[in-house]
């Protein structure tokens, strides 16, 4: 697992304990008994030893691009680095801040140039030194492992809102939503459920209508008996009269002609 303390410890080891010289032509020669590196190969090597993913980073110029896509943030070089920060001048140099005012780096070969013999010939080709402003273009600071695409998808899929997971809403198994729909469906309006009104099964209106029909039938029967006529005959006469009247009706539909 990536660890900044391990990064600082490995930088300190290669710069103080191991016998490492500086050479850009022999820059991946990590041999504690007598090896060579340059500033960027040292930092990349120690990052990998500490468990960090360095992508395709291979030199100072592509460190920022590779690391900022892997959990590192590019910050202004304000003179207040934190332990584990990578001190970066994009074109020329890179080091690691160890904390307590110290940094670790690969500096220069024994010749004062960019090539040299394996091993530290001057006791300073690789070194731990007081912090200085190179100047640095930025500090690269680690903020944590970036989640994978699969991890992000899982987090979204299992995201819970109001007690319901996103996946349940998408799959139509949202118990809360179903319960809400059922509450609307069975909502009482003057003692009648909403679905009954929609289906024409209004338990209030139906009894009222039945009572009205019964009362009218009783009145018709009483009228027929009072005049000595068969109720069925009167009912048939009323039906014929209503039909005849309806046949004479003329219905005109007018609309706005403007």
UniProtKB/TrEMBL annotation:
GO molecular function: hydrolase activity
Domain of life from the UniProt record: Bacteria
UniProt domain Endolysin-like: residue ranges: 10-101, 104-158
Keywords recorded for this protein, A-Z: Hydrolase
UniProt protein name: Peptidoglycan hydrolase
Source taxonomy: Bacteria, Bacillati, Actinomycetota, Actinomycetes, Bifidobacteriales
């Amino acid at each position: 697992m990536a660890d900044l303390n391990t990064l600082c410890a490995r930088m300190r080891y290669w710069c103080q304990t191991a016998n490492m010289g500086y050479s850009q032509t022999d820059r991946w020669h990590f041999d504690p008994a007598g090896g060579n590196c340059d500033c960027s190969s040292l930092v990349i090597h120690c990052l990998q030893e500490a468990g960090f993913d360095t992508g395709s980073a291979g030199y100072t110029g592509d460190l920022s691009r590779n690391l900022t896509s892997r959990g590192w943030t590019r910050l202004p070089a304000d003179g207040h680095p934190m332990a584990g920060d990578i001190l970066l001048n994009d074109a020329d140099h890179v080091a690691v801040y160890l904390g307590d005012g110290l940094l670790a780096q690969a500096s220069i070969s024994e010749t004062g140039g960019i090539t040299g013999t394996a091993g530290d010939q001057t006791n300073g080709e690789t070194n731990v030194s007081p912090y200085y402003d190179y100047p640095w273009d930025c500090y690269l600071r680690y903020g944590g492992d970036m989640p994978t695409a699969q991890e992000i998808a899982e987090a979204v899929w299992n995201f819970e809102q109001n007690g319901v997971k996103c996946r349940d809403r998408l799959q139509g198994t949202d118990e809360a939503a179903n319960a809400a729909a059922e509450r609307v469906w069975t909502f009482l309006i003057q003692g009648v459920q909403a679905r009954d009104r929609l289906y024409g099964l209004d338990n209030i209106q139906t009894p009222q209508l039945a009572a009205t029909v019964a009362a009218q039938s009783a009145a018709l029967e009483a009228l027929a008996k009072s005049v000595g006529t068969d109720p069925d005959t009167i009912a048939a006469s009323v039906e014929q009269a209503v039909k005849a009247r309806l046949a004479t009706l003329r219905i005109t539909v007018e609309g706005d002609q403007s």
